[in-house]
Specification:
The complex is a heterotrimer of chains A (310), B (378) and C (320).
Chain A: H1 3-35, H2 42-64, H3 70-96, H4 104-126, E1 131-132, H5 152-174, H6 176-186, H7 188-193, H8 198-223, E2 226-227, H9 231-246, H10 251-270, H11 272-275, H12 282-296
Antiparallel strand pairs in A: 1-2
Helix pairs in contact in A: 1-5, 1-8, 1-9, 1-10, 2-3, 2-4, 2-8, 2-9, 3-8, 5-6, 5-8, 6-8, 9-10, 9-12, 10-12
Chain B: H1 2-18, E1 30-37, H2 44-63, E2 71-78, H3 85-95, E3 101-103, H4 108-121, E4 125-127, H5 134-137, E5 142-144, H6 149-162, E6 167-173, H7 177-192, E7 196-203, H8 211-220, E8 224-227, H9 231-243, E9 250-252, H10 259-265, E10 273-276, H11 285-298, H12 304-323, H13 328-336, E11 341-343, E12 346-350, E13 356-357, E14 360-366, E15 369-376
Parallel strand pairs in B: 1-2, 1-3, 3-4, 4-5, 6-7, 6-8, 8-9, 9-10
Antiparallel strand pairs in B: 10-14, 11-12, 12-13, 14-15
Chain C: H1 3-21, H2 27-52, H3 60-86, H4 91-120, H5 125-144, H6 164-182, H7 185-195, H8 197-202, H9 207-233, H10 243-256, H11 261-277, H12 282-299
Classes of the chains: A mainly alpha (310), B alpha/beta (378), C mainly alpha (320).
Chain lengths: 310, 378, 320
């Protein structure tokens, strides 16, 4: 394979990896956009979504008697998203709602607490070992673009990410609920005065974000069929960086950020020898990008500079 | 406030002096052995397997004559797979529980933490499966009953060359010293004996995407790939490799030994090889009997960690019987002079560096099961 | 003399005496005591950054790692040269070597603190937390990929210089320095930055100076703690300084009450000792901690000892 071919292949790899980050970043950015709050536990909802898919599959297969096809996969996806939406709403109601008026630092610490709670409870309930995730869709090479190897699952994930991106944008920009969310993000007090039911909108936002995280979990497990209690930690952090890179609060920005990070990471690993560093530095790439973007353009690539009013 | 400060200081000193070191001898009616393992945390599966093997050995000893006419007590402590804990629990076992010997640990990093303490307190320590050469270099009270990284790396390289594979790709988990060591010694032997390392790539534990590394490896067209990390990533690596059409065989070390390997990778694992301490197919009555007893007790198949845990306890027991005493110096010498002990994991002799001199077995995966291929002598 | 000086001297003397008797004391108890002392230093140093200055840092383990590796590098690699300069081995030479190693570790960590602090200046709250987390991880990844200091296989055979005297002596020094600083005009600066950064800037306070100072000092003492840890366990790996370790220290500071000097000391001791007693319940430990964090933030964010404050001269307004 020639150099150009290799580069393109690695680009495909990077986009595929990046689409997972993008999917999770969508949820992060939406919650931050509305509530001005980084949900540290978002990555762990991703993990719960993956496990939910695993157990739904285990429950479904004996019921149907046969390996679920496309319809079954959709059912599992929908089920997992519903479970996580409910989880997100419960978490918001129990842990974040009492702290709405408190300083952001307190809420951040609470979010860390929720994150740890989810991780270690999962470890207790499901065991610390990695468990295999069943093949929901048979992975096949959709090859032929001049020797480029693309798997059908990679295309599915990329397609779904763009689809959800479109759906989310539609909800936020074109529906009344979306308008309420945007109003809340500008000024919560004014929005309440204007008749927006703050509690319902916030719950909805959390539910939606968590459902997106669950979708991320299912699709990630489709590409990388292994689940473990801490699978959401690194991915969650990188998705957060993606959201910041794209401009936190900006939905297309999150997707863009995710794809960029996926590609840069993959390129660093692929060309590590040429750059002169070990490919073990992969995890540091996302953080370096974060530091750079916060130094150079803190509002992100697609974000608008906000003035802080006092 | 000044008075409070002085008062507090006095209390502190009194409390410290109150905890006097108890130098009196071990409990008179029991031989107490200590074991530390990672029963919880990231490497819990290894620790739990090892513990099960050790516990079974102790239970069998107690069902029989015990040791030196006394029952055997096992103190097990969990080091939570975390750095810093191993040192604390081993100190506790030595000073509080008065153990006469320590068994542990599976991971070299935690053995390295505990070894200086055992050496200083003159308590013999036997590691069931730490492979970093530095562990036994700490001192003459520290030994191990498994082979070390240089040996295993060499075994794999020899096997690869014997199969006619001249070009190798090496994929290392840079977060694990086990993987780094294995890769290093494989590379050394392989390149010195006619092979070429065509490409080296790295990843970290918990990574899930290896497409970038595998694409580069595919472009380098090797005959074989060494994936020297643990089964936790090896399964995914094999699966992704096959998915992009990289069909050359893969090699691994004893870190591959787990049913999860085939569960995750499925058919992608067929035809790969790894080195291990024992094969469940070995028809010798000793091994088959062990498997039967283990299955009866725990309702599952034993893996290499369980077998090593069992052997470490039994070798210690054998040394105690040979020494005829639990006196630390005599016990240390008895352990070090273990010769041709017939263990589940092979005929074990401890060399002058207190590392085990014993053969490795090469296993392959066929029809989703581990099958024996050959034995490689040291 | 000022009573804080008296307290410092008392603590140093007590530590020295305890150290002399430590060979008579149960090894395990000494182990726990040393770990308590190290955690006290970690908690106090993080308290300076998080509590007094309000800069939420999640990367403290990174500074600890720099201190641990920096000091070990001196003890392992530079020791023959240093000992030769001092004229051979012996108690005095060893102790001097240890002192040099400690300082080297602390200064290295302080440098890292400076490098982390400066870019973080512009960031607030959540962003700062993530960036400091990122720096902590970057430090760990760098150490892991540097074979000269052992890489993932770690460094072993570090000389075991740490004893009760060094640990508690340095803990006393740390508390003394931090609390004296907070009690001075510098402290006013820290607290101003914590309470309202923009207002402080508007009042002419150089917030940059105070933020960087907090980071550098916090990192320095974290480095000292790391050095003590390295020379006690005598073996260090990059994995021992990961995000979870940072979280452990953060929990201590939060339980004790951010900005509460005595509180974090007690929290450090309680959590270290509790770890020992709860060994059999390890699986539940982190779940309990997580629940504790959440409940504390909801019910009592000022920490368990929120009401009890170090007797500062004059009242200091509590952050609402």
């Amino acid at each position: 394979m020639d150099d150009w071919g290799r580069f393109l292949q690695q680009l495909v790899n990077g986009l595929s990896q990046g689409s997972i980050y993008a999917l999770i970043a969508l949820g992060y950015t939406m919650v931050y956009g509305v509530l001005r709050f980084i949900n540290f536990a978002h990555g762990d909802v991703f993990m719960v979504g993956a496990y939910a898919g695993l157990f739904l599959h285990r429950w479904l297969v004996p019921l149907l008697g046969v390996v679920p096809g496309f319809g079954g996969a959709l059912l599992i996806l929908a089920g997992s998203m519903a479970i996580c939406a409910a989880l997100g709403i419960v978490i918001e109601w129990l842990a974040y709602r009492p702290l709405r008026t408190r300083p952001r630092l307190i809420v951040l610490i609470t979010a860390i607490g929720v994150s740890l709670l989810l991780e270690y409870s999962a470890q207790l309930i499901f065991g610390p070992n990695r468990q295999p995730f069943p093949d929901l869709v048979e992975t096949r090479l959709v090859g032929g673009f001049g020797g480029l190897l693309v798997k059908n699952t990679q295309l599915i994930v990329l397609a779904v990410t763009l689809l959800l991106l479109g759906a989310l944008s539609f909800i936020v920009l074109r529906t009344r609920l979306g308008m309420a969310m945007r109003a809340l993000s500008f000024n919560p007090t004014a929005a309440a005065l204007m008749g927006v039911n703050t509690d319902v909108v916030i719950s909805f936002t959390f539910g939606l974000g968590s459902a997106l995280a669950a979708a991320g979990g299912i699709f990630s497990s489709m590409l990388y069929p292994q689940v473990q209690p801490f699978m959401g930690v690194t991915v969650g952090l990188k998705a957060f960086v993606a959201a910041v890179l794209g401009g936190i609060g900006n939905i297309p920005g999150a997707a863009l950020g995710g794809l960029i990070i996926g590609v840069v990471e993959t390129m660093v690993v692929a060309y590590s020898e040429k750059i002169g560093i070990s490919s073990g530095y992969r995890d540091a790439v996302a953080f370096v990008i974060l530091i750079l973007i916060l130094l150079v353009k803190p509002s992100g690539l697609l974000g608008k500079t906000e003035r802080e009013k006092v | 406030m000044k008075k409070a400060a002085l008062f507090a200081t006095a209390i502190f000193l009194a409390a410290l002096t109150g905890c006097k070191r108890n130098d009196s001898g071990a409990a008179a009616d029991k031989v107490v052995i200590g074991e530390f393992a990672s029963l919880t945390g990231a490497t819990a599966s290894f620790g739990q397997s090892s513990h099960k093997g050790t516990q079974m050995a102790i239970d069998e000893l107690n069902a029989g004559d015990g040791l030196l006419g006394k029952k055997v007590g096992l103190v097990t402590e969990d080091d939570q797979s975390k750095a810093g804990e191993a040192a604390t629990v081993v100190r506790k076992m030595i000073s509080r529980d008065k153990v006469i010997a320590v068994l542990g640990e599976v991971a070299s990093s935690r053995s390295l933490e505990a070894a200086p303490i055992c050496q200083q307190s003159k308590v013999p320590m036997i590691s069931p499966s730490s492979t970093n050469p530095k562990v036994t270099e700490v001192g003459d009270y520290i030994s191990r009953i498994c082979f070390i990284d240089p040996f295993q790396g060499t075994v794999l390289a020899k096997f690869a060359l014997s199969k006619g594979w001249k070009k190798a790709a090496v994929l290392t988990d840079v977060k694990q010293d086990y993987s780094v060591g294995l890769s290093q010694y494989f590379k050394e032997y392989f390149s010195k004996n006619g092979g070429t390392i065509v490409i080296e790539q790295n990843y970290s534990t918990d990574d899930t995407d290896f497409n970038a590394q595998l694409t580069s490896i595919k472009a380098a067209a090797p005959d074989v790939i060494l994936a020297s990390g643990y089964y936790t990533e090896a399964g995914l690596i094999a699966k992704q490799a096959r998915q992009i059409g990289l069909s050359v065989p893969m090699l691994g070390g004893d870190g591959w030994d787990s049913p999860s390997l085939v569960q995750v990778a499925g058919a992608a694992m067929e035809g790969n090889f790894f080195s291990n301490h024992f094969s469940a197919e070995d028809q010798t009555p000793l091994i088959q009997d062990f498997i039967k007893r283990y299955k009866a007790k725990y309702n599952e198949e034993p893996d290499a960690m369980a077998a090593l845990g069992y052997d470490s306890a039994m070798i210690l027991a054998d040394a105690i019987k040979r020494a005829g005493t639990t006196d630390s110096e005599k016990l240390r010498d008895a352990v070090a002079s273990t010769k041709e002990y017939n263990g589940i994991t092979g005929k074990i002799t401890l060399d002058d560096k207190r590392n085990a001199n014993k053969p490795a077995v090469i296993l392959t995966i066929k029809d989703g099961k581990f099958k024996y291929v050959e034995t490689v002598a040291p | 003399m000022r009573w804080s000086h008296l307290l410092l001297i008392c603590a140093l003397v007590a530590a020295a005496v305890a150290s002399v008797f430590s060979s008579r004391i149960d090894d395990y108890v000494v182990n726990v005591a040393v770990l308590c002392g190290i955690n006290m230093i970690l908690a106090t140093s993080l308290n300076l950054v998080n509590g007094h200055t309000g800069q939420f840092s999640l990367g403290h383990a990174g500074f600890m790692a720099v201190g641990a590796y920096g000091s070990s590098a001196v003890s392992l690699f530079a020791s023959p040269w240093l000992l030769a300069k001092m004229g051979g081995v012996g108690f005095a030479a060893n102790q001097t070597l240890f002192l040099i190693a400690l300082l080297a570790g602390g200064i290295a960590a302080a440098t890292a603190g400076f490098i982390v602090g400066v870019p973080s200046l512009r960031l607030r709250g959540d962003y700062l937390a993530i960036v400091t987390l990122g720096f902590g991880e970057i430090i760990r990844v760098i150490v892991q990929n540097t074979d000269a200091i052992g890489g993932p296989r770690g460094l072993n055979q570090i000389p075991g210089f740490t004893n009760v005297f060094w640990t508690f002596g340095l803990a006393a020094v740390t508390v003394y320095v931090v609390s004296s600083l907070v009690d001075s005009t510098y402290g006013r600066g820290f607290l101003a930055v914590r309470d309202d950064e923009i207002a402080a800037e508007a009042m002419g306070i150089n917030t940059t100076k105070y933020k960087v100072l907090a980071f550098v000092l916090g990192a320095f003492f974290a480095g000292i703690a790391g050095a003590l840890y390295a020379h006690y366990i005598t073996y260090i790996t990059p994995e021992g300084f990961n995000f979870m370790k940072s979280v452990d220290v953060v929990v201590m500071v939060i339980l004790g009450g951010m900005g509460n000097v005595v509180g974090v000391l007690l929290a450090a001791v309680v959590l270290t000792v509790l770890n020992e007693f709860l060994r059999s319940f390890e699986q539940y430990r982190m779940i309990v901690f997580a629940l504790l964090l959440i409940l504390m933030m909801i019910l009592r964010p000022q920490g368990l000892l929120g009401g009890l404050r170090w007797p500062f001269k004059g009242k200091v307004a509590k952050k609402k």
